[in-house]
Specification:
The complex is a heterodimer of chains A (about 500) and B (about 475). Chain A is built from 15 helices and 16 strands. Chain A is an alpha+beta fold and about 500 residues long. In chain A, the strands form four sheets. In chain A, strands 1, 2, 6, 7, 10, 11, 12, 13 and 14 form a nine-stranded mixed sheet that branches. Chain A has a three-stranded antiparallel sheet with strand order 5-4-15, with no helix packed on it. In chain A, strand 6 and strand 7 form a beta hairpin. In chain A, helix 12 packs across helix 15. Chain A starts with 8 loop residues before the first strand and ends with a helix. By secondary structure, chain B is an alpha/beta fold. Chain B has a domain of about 260 residues: Amidase signature (AS) domain (Amidase signature (AS) enzymes, Alpha-Beta Complex). In chain B, about 60% of the residues are buried. The mean pLDDT of chain B is about 95. Classes of the chains: A alpha+beta (about 500), B alpha/beta (about 475). At the A-B interface, loops of A face helix 9 and helix 10 of B.
């Protein structure tokens, strides 16, 4: 694969601008119950059906930390190659809103549970490390529903108190593509770990996007704007493009960028000011006196570390070494745990390299067309391996394999059965092929003469005739060899 | 038999156990007392029917092995009680009926007692005179012009007036000990974390602690034993074995070292308070204790520290009273913000608003370091003073309050002089230690005065023992004329 050069700049009249992006990703912790109460976290329940007295902040109710959520945060931190803090503190972030029952969100401010870490991205121009500033645990708020009634707002507290991990990146991202790769990598790591399902439609993964621009070559950061609560990669990318262009335009017109919080309007595809720095909330953070500081024993951290599954970066290395894949193939095949599992099952039973090619080609295309996850693939890994083996052994040609593949998708049958019942087996008997080729050559004497006179392009014509006569079953490699031999004679 | 309601809890329990009185007779006697004591305004809510039902149930199937067999108890209206209105002395919870029972009250009921009613208190426990309650002043049975102390003023008044055999209060900066001192009763603030805070309307979470208020030390030990214990629902609850305070009560204090802190002799303290302190020292010395002069150098910073930490936590704890889910909601207000503003303006009283404002201020960006953070540091120094002293002593003896009960209205327009009332009690909350106020005598007007015993963390048994010995030798009896009935 040839390496491209990084080239994402906003081109203004007065020069090229680099876009600097930092993300605050809010990832919902995969856990049965909420961060400080026993309420269920299941998605899709009727409004206000998963709300305890604690989640709705009744008088005298007290939070009790859910240990599983703490472990999930530690696992995630370890997956991000980050420092786990043995001592962390829960703080109250105070503000009033109808869907915030306590009048404060319990979060971590000065002492987060996870410190600095890093994430590795594979970009077309090489690999790039993105720094992680911190990861902290916090409660989600409820949901205000403004469009159910013309004069009232309804509040659903099912989400209230659900555990979130806020993962703050350093301002290391430089393009919408890198943001795409970063979110996908985070999602992949957390799904491998089982700490977040990464389901963006259900709001399990959202991000606040910090964007600033600066002239290419500048070392100081420009003034940033924060775009709140963007819930899909596509919208993040659109918001960044809009926002970067807006900032460049301001600069080029000699105007100042105000540090502010903005909203991305997905319908109009634009960002809008939500509140300026002067109007920013004073959250009056202070340590929550209802909770003791969280002290983690080193043993717990070590044990969690030992029990971590193999993560994408490690698995990728192994795929390259063990299966002889190139970096690109390995990267694609480890992106989702389920994909890598499928691949490994196939690779065990068939040619490793060919399996990768066919998975990334026909299988992914089919799944993509049908909008299916690999876990829902109509072709089992075992059948797929049989197909790959049939190709490898020369039993069927690549072209026939595509037909077999289609039938497998529709019928769910194993490829052996399909090949036999439809007589699709490749003709690989040299004697039979020679007979067939001789027949064709004798029928097309004129073309043979032309070929021998130097019109070598006609070689393709002869191959075509062989395929036609064999019903596409002639082994192409063998056909080529025999044709060349006979045409020489 | 003679009026059972002026007996101690311990004697009443004996009378129940020996069937000299039934739970129903006992309960009826209290109902009668309460009905004739409306002038004291000690109750916000009474639960007579339910109490009589419970008494009947007990009498039908008595279990005399319990710590509090068939005992009716009124409790401070800061404890959430299932299906019984719980107001915290505030308009904003005027209509609030919890669906749950606080751990502490549940513990009491599990030991055989039942609810008689909910006692008036300062709004959200913010006050030292019970004058901030939305439900009006409570009168001290000691005198019809006197405050009963606060914030557990309804509790102290009801106890001293024989409207409940014992009671419980909460103590954030002295709210059990000061009212006990003002009414000639016993009040104990346990070690922070000994009693669960679950289900108690929060004032300042790092300081709040529930505790017993009783007529004597033995009763105090019984009540503490019943109400305390580890609770996994409170993350600050201490996980330790339950103690048998009443069974282990001893009056031998020979050889114990009692610290006398010089910083507790404050300017303008009435002579009687000083004399009483001297009397207390002499009694303990005569009982074989050794008096040791100690210094708690950061004591003078305790009150300002308290009035930063407590309001800061309160400003956040009280944010949940917003009219959205329960409690009072203003009918005014055209949008969310206005609804909040009107609800909280109408729902909270002046003292609560004052503390929310102070708390919001000290946590605000730009002020946090100068106030809240500094206060937390001073708090550590105050705690260290105690820790250092306790290396060489067993307990500390101080006056409970700088004066006896003051007159209703005397300090309402001067918050700072009101706050000064907590000067001896507040350091203990900041340090999370147990402390007991016990009646020790009267001033020249005949108003009760108390002495305070401060113990090491979890040393409740020791200060109860010292109190027990003191009580037997003090020669003071709290005589209150029932002028109100």
């Amino acid at each position: 694969m040839s390496k491209e050069k990084f080239d994402y700049f906003i081109r203004g009249e007065k020069g090229k601008y680099e876009v600097v992006i930092g993300l605050e990703v809010h990832a919902q912790v995969l856990s049965k119950s909420k961060l400080f109460s026993g309420s269920s976290t299941k998605f899709g329940a009727d409004p206000n059906n998963q709300v305890s007295l604690i989640d709705s902040a009744f008088p005298g109710m007290l939070p009790v930390i859910n240990e599983e959520c703490v472990k999930q945060a530690v696992r995630t931190g370890l997956g991000l190659n980050a420092k786990i803090n043995n001592y962390s503190v829960f703080d109250r972030k105070n503000y009033f809103y109808a869907d915030l029952p306590q009048g404060y969100q319990i979060s971590q401010y000065k002492n987060p549970i996870v410190g600095e870490g890093k994430v590795l991205l594979e970009m077309p121009y090489g690999s790039k490390e993105i720094g992680i500033e911190r990861l902290h645990l916090e409660q989600d708020a409820g949901k205000s529903i403004h469009d159910m009634d013309p004069s009232n707002t309804y509040v659903d507290l099912n989400r209230s108190g659900i555990a979130l991990m806020e993962i703050v990146s350093k301002p290391d991202l430089r393009s919408p593509d890198e943001v795409n790769a970063y979110i996908k990598k985070l999602r992949s790591i957390m799904r491998y770990l089982g700490t977040c399902d990464g389901n963006m439609q259900e709001g399990s993964l959202r991000a606040d996007v910090n964007v600033s621009v600066r002239k290419e070559g500048d070392t100081n950061f420009g003034t940033r704007c924060e775009i709140k609560n963007v819930n899909s990669i596509k919208f993040m990318q659109m918001a960044i493009e809009y926002e970067a262009a807006r900032q460049v335009e301001l600069i080029e017109n000699g105007k100042k960028i105000d540090q502010e919080t903005r909203l991305f309007d997905t319908k109009k595809n634009e960002t809008r000011s939500m509140r300026s720095k002067e109007d920013a909330h004073d959250y009056r953070y202070f340590p929550d006196p209802d909770l003791l500081p969280l002290k983690l024993e080193q043993k717990l951290i070590d044990d969690l570390k030992k029990s971590l599954p193999e993560l994408p970066d490690k698995k990728k290395e192994r795929f390259v070494k063990e299966y002889g894949l190139n970096a690109y193939e390995a990267n694609v095949l480890v992106s989702e745990k389920e994909i890598s599992d499928y691949y490994e099952e196939v690779a065990k039973l068939s040619d490793k390299k060919l399996a990768a090619t066919w998975m990334m080609g026909d299988l992914f295309a089919m799944l993509n067309d049908r909008g299916l996850d690999i876990s829902k693939s109509p072709i089992s890994a075992k059948h797929f391996a049989e197909l790959v083996q049939a190709i490898k052994s020369g039993e069927i040609s690549g072209r026939i394999a595509k037909e077999v593949f289609e039938i497998m998708v529709e019928s769910g049958d194993n490829p052996k059965k399909i090949i036999e019942s439809k007589g699709m087996k490749q003709q690989s008997d040299p004697k039979e092929l020679e007979k067939m080729i001789n027949e064709i050559l004798s029928k097309n004497k004129d073309k043979v003469d032309q070929y021998k006179a130097g019109k070598e392009k006609l070689f393709g014509f002869f191959v075509g005739q062989v395929m036609k006569l064999s019903g596409g079953k002639a082994n192409p490699q063998l056909t080529n060899e025999i044709l060349k031999k006979l045409l020489k004679g | 038999m003679a009026d059972i309601t002026n007996q101690s809890l311990n004697d009443i329990i004996e009378n129940i156990k020996t069937k000299k009185v039934s739970s129903t007779e006992l309960t009826k006697a209290y109902v009668k007392n309460i009905e004739s004591a409306k002038k004291l305004n000690a109750f916000v809510t009474t639960t007579f029917d339910q109490a009589l039902d419970n008494a009947k149930q007990f009498d039908n199937k008595p279990n005399f092995d319990q710590l509090l067999p068939g005992i009716p108890l009124a409790v401070k209206d800061l404890f959430c009680t299932e299906n019984t209105k719980t107001t915290a002395g505030s308009n904003i919870l005027n209509n609030f009926i919890p669906s749950y029972e606080s751990t502490v009250t549940k513990n009491l009921w599990d030991h055989g007692s039942f609810l008689l009613g909910k006692l008036n208190c300062d709004e959200f426990a913010m006050g030292s005179s019970n004058e901030t309650s939305y439900y009006g002043n409570v009168i001290n049975p000691v005198g019809d012009q006197l405050v009963p102390g606060g914030s557990s003023g309804g509790s102290s008044s009801a106890l001293a007036a024989d409207l409940t055999p014992a009671t419980i209060g909460t103590d954030t900066g002295g709210s059990i000990r000061q009212p006990a001192s003002f009414t000639g009763t016993v009040g104990l603030k346990p070690t922070y974390g000994l009693c669960s805070r679950w289900g108690i309307v929060a004032f300042a979470s790092s300081l709040d602690q529930a505790g017993p208020m009783t007529k004597n030390i033995k009763d105090c030990a019984i009540m503490l034993e019943a109400m305390s214990g580890f609770d996994e629902k409170d993350s600050t609850s201490i996980n330790k074995k339950k103690e048998q305070y009443s069974k282990n009560l001893k009056d031998n204090i020979k050889g114990l070292k009692i610290g006398i802190p010089k910083e507790y002799r404050v300017d303008n303290m009435p002579k009687e308070v000083d004399e009483l302190w001297e009397k207390g020292k002499k009694i303990l010395k005569d009982l074989g204790a050794q008096l040791i002069d100690i210094s708690l150098p950061h004591t003078k910073y305790a009150l300002p520290t308290y009035y930063i930490v407590a309001p800061a936590e309160a400003s956040s704890n009280l944010a949940r009273y917003d009219g959205v889910r329960y409690g009072y909601r203003s009918k005014q207000g055209k949008d969310l913000i206005e609804m909040y503003e009107k609800t909280r303006s109408e729902g909270f009283g002046d003292e609560v608003k004052r503390r929310i404002l102070i708390g919001t201020y000290v946590l605000s960006s730009g002020y946090y370091d100068a106030y809240y953070l500094k206060a937390q540091k001073v708090r550590q120094l105050i705690k260290k003073d105690f820790d250092d002293s306790f290396k060489k002593i067993d307990a500390i003896l101080t006056p409970s309050t700088p004066s006896s009960a003051f007159k209703i209205g005397e300090k309402t327009n001067d918050p700072v002089s009101m706050y000064l009332n907590d000067i001896f009690t507040v350091p203990v909350n900041l340090a999370g230690l147990p402390a007991l106020s016990m009646p020790a005598g009267v001033d020249k007007q005949g108003h009760p005065l108390g002495l305070q015993l401060i113990g090491k963390a979890l040393d409740e048994q020791k200060i109860l023992n010292i109190g027990y010995a003191f009580e037997k030798n003090c020669g003071y009896k709290n005589e209150i004329k029932k002028w109100w009935s």
